[in-house]
Amino acid sequence: MKHCLLNLILFSGRRKDILLLLKEKPRDVDEIKELLNVNASSIQLHMKKMKDSGLITQKGKIYSLSEIGEIIVENMQPLLSTTETLGENTEYWLSHDLSSIPEFLLERIGELGHCELLEPDVGHLFETPKILRDSILSSRRP
Question: What's the pLDDT at 90?
Fold first, then answer.
């Protein structure tokens, strides 16, 4: 029976983690086990399912993403990033009107990564909070 690729990937955090590891570079089972801190028996079934579905290939002891796997992982990362960003502060996102945020920015909301709500101290309302200032100064992009 053919597996639905979406179910195969998204309903298993372990398979998702394996695919993301293989996106970085091809790996053998020992390296995958070590990086995920699991034993071989807990990933063997996952590896078999992904091989059978054409997401990964095996040459000797080395596993890598297939061409289909590369396409899927490349497209799955924005979804994962978006769900992580929105999931971290669900209460905030649900309690605020997002309609003033331009569509092109909403489409890229997953790029925010970890974010935190900074509420200014009323006594220092017109000063830039130190944590924001430090974050801007250490930013990778100007």
Answer: 87
Q: What is the pLDDT of residues 54-63, one digit of tens each?
A: 999 999 999 9
User: SS in 3 state form for 3-60?
Assistant: CCHHHHHHCCHHHHHHHHHHHHCCEEHHHHHHHHCCCHHHHHHHHHHHHHCCCEEEEC
The type of residue at 66 is S
Segment (H or E) for 85: helix 67-88
| The CA-based dihedral angle spanning residues 42, 34, 21, 13, taken in that order and rounded to the nearest 10 degrees | 40
Which of these ranges, 22-36, 44-58, 105-119, has the smallest mean pLDDT? 105-119
Q: What pLDDT score was predicted for residue 12?
A: 80
CATH 1.10.10.10 assigned to 1-142: yes
HSE of 142, CA atoms in CB hemisphere, 13 A? 0
The amino acid occupying position 3 is: H
